């Protein structure tokens, strides 16, 4: 048993997932790092106190609970390795990670280019808090590619990406957007929650800052709220400074759970991917379904980009139904036995949710005659999930069914 420093570990993602952050030699041989709960950290001498104050923003020391404990550092080290980043920072939610990253690189008078298919609450953050702080946001079409250059202004400081898009799953040409932004001196920030660092590594495609809601696949068990940001050292110091000025600190218990989630991420994702695709293909063949929104399907408009840049697909995707009576849809959804209805995703269980993307688009239009549903393929037996959906469609049809648009 050796405790190798994380940099000395072999590079394969599965090996990093299995071993990074563990230091059994420092912990009585216990495999997992313990949960260190702390506010006060004691210093033996004035010299040590002085040293800690000088290095408080440098990640290397534990100085106060809000700066993180060794449990936080174990989680952050692991994510940084997976992303190919110098360093990562744990934050109390995915939205906190996004907000801290935006605040770190924007100030009054700056302009932000935000993808139109961004996770809804980020749109609210831009329209309310950032506007109040004198930061202007323009929303752009995810299909923009290198034409993003034409949207940039001298004061554009951040270009923000998310792919595939929230609720509607449009892909983005990430390298093209990142290169155009870099050429104009803007920082790119990408929400990579859907793919996780296993299926897409934004920093290797030219993005400057990657965030993930660890609440989803990284945690994987629907029992924690956390976000994580990864970047090079200089940018991460900037984000960490902003986050700490706002008082954000991820809880040690959640860091422990998120690190435990990482240990099985790879095997869980394989299953989410397989079941998600099985459901998507089955749904494609259903007469009630107008369109399946899943970039790993060859028919999807984003398929070429997904295939070029991503190493896999996770279990979250959408469908557009043909028009139907609201009561028929309610009867379908209310009666689901395995698919739960609720926010969030990325846990072990399957979910289904009616969504309204139309209300949160401004640079693009979401025009469908029928309702849109978001599905999360969990780890259940796919046959049982298909049977649950099949019974759901039977209820929809008993309530009048769909009309051809
Ligand atoms: C794509 C995406 N990013 C970020 C978030 C925010 O994460 P959290 O709920 O941990 O704040 C979510 C939550 O649903 C999400 O779907």
Structure, described:
- With 405 residues, this protein is an alpha/beta fold.
- It has two domains: 6-263, Type I PLP-dependent aspartate aminotransferase-like (Major domain) (Aspartate Aminotransferase, domain 2); 265-398, Aspartate Aminotransferase, domain 1 (Alpha-Beta Complex).
- It is built from 13 helices and eleven strands.
- The chain has helices at 13-19, 46-54, 70-83, 94-105, 120-132, 174-183, 196-199, 233-245, 252-263, 265-284, 303-309, 326-334, 382-398, and strands at 87-91, 111-115, 136-140, 156-162, 187-191, 209-213, 227-231, 289-293, 316-321, 351-355, 372-376.
- The strands form two sheets. It has a seven-stranded mixed β-sheet with strand order 1-7-6-5-4-2-3, sandwiched between helices.
- α12 runs antiparallel to α13.
- The longest helix has 20 residues, at 265-284.
- The N and C termini lie far apart (64 Å).
- The mean pLDDT is 95.
- Bound molecules: pyridoxal-5'-phosphate.
In brief, what are we looking at here?
It comes from Hypericibacter adhaerens. This protein is α/β, with parallel strands linked by helices. The chain has helices spanning 13-19, 46-54, 70-83, 94-105, 120-132, 174-183, 196-199, 233-245, 252-263, 265-284, 303-309, 326-334, 382-398, and strands at residues 87-91, 111-115, 136-140, 156-162, 187-191, 209-213, 227-231, 289-293, 316-321, 351-355, 372-376.
Keywords:
405 residues; binds pyridoxal-5'-phosphate; 13 helices; Aspartate Aminotransferase, domain 2; seven-stranded mixed beta sheet; Aspartate Aminotransferase, domain 1; single chain; alpha/beta; four-stranded antiparallel beta sheet; 11 strands
């Amino acid at each position: 048993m050796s405790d190798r420093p994380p940099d000395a570990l072999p590079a394969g993602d599965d090996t990093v997932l299995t071993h990074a952050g563990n230091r059994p030699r420092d912990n009585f041989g216990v495999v997992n790092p313990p949960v260190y709960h702390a506010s006060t950290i004691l210093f033996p001498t004035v010299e040590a106190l002085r040293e800690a104050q000088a290095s408080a923003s440098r990640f290397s020391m534990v100085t106060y609970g809000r700066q993180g404990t060794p449990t936080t550092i174990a989680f952050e080290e692991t994510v940084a390795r997976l992303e190919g980043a110098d360093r990562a920072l744990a934050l109390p939610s995915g939205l906190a990670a996004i907000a801290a990253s935006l605040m770190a690189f924007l100030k009054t008078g700056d302009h932000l280019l935000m993808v139109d298919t961004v996770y809804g609450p980020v749109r609210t953050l831009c329209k309310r808090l950032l506007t109040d702080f004198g930061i202007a946001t323009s929303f752009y079409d995810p299909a923009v590619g290198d034409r993003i250059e034409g949207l940039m202004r001298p004061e554009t400081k951040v270009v923000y990406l998310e792919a595939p898009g929230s609720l509607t799953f449009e892909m983005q040409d990430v390298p093209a957007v990142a290169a155009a932004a870099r050429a104009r001196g803007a920082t790119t920030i990408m929400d990579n929650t859907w793919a996780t660092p296993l299926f897409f590594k934004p920093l290797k495609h030219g993005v400057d800052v990657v965030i993930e809601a660890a609440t989803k696949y990284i945690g994987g068990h629907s029992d924690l709220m956390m976000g994580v940001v990864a970047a090079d050292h200089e940018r991460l110091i900037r984000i960490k400074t902003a986050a700490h000025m706002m008082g954000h600190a991820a809880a040690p218990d959640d860091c422990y759970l998120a690190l435990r989630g990482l240990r099985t991420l790879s095997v869980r994702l394989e299953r989410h991917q397989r079941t998600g695709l099985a459901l998507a293909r089955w749904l494609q063949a259903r007469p009630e379904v107008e369109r399946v929104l899943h970039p790993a399907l060859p028919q999807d408009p984003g398929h070429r980009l997904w295939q070029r840049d991503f190493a896999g697909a996770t279990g979250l995707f959408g469908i557009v139904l043909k028009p139907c009576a609201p009561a028929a849809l309610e009867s379908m959804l209310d009666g689901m036995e395995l698919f739960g209805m609720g926010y969030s995703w990325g846990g072990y269980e399957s979910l289904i949710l009616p969504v309204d993307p139309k209300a949160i688009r401004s640079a693009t239009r979401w025009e469908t005659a029928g309702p849109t549903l978001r599905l999360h393929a969990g780890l259940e037996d796919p046959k049982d999930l298909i049977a649950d959906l099949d019974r759901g469609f039977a209820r929809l049809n008993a309530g009048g069914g769909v009309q051809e648009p």
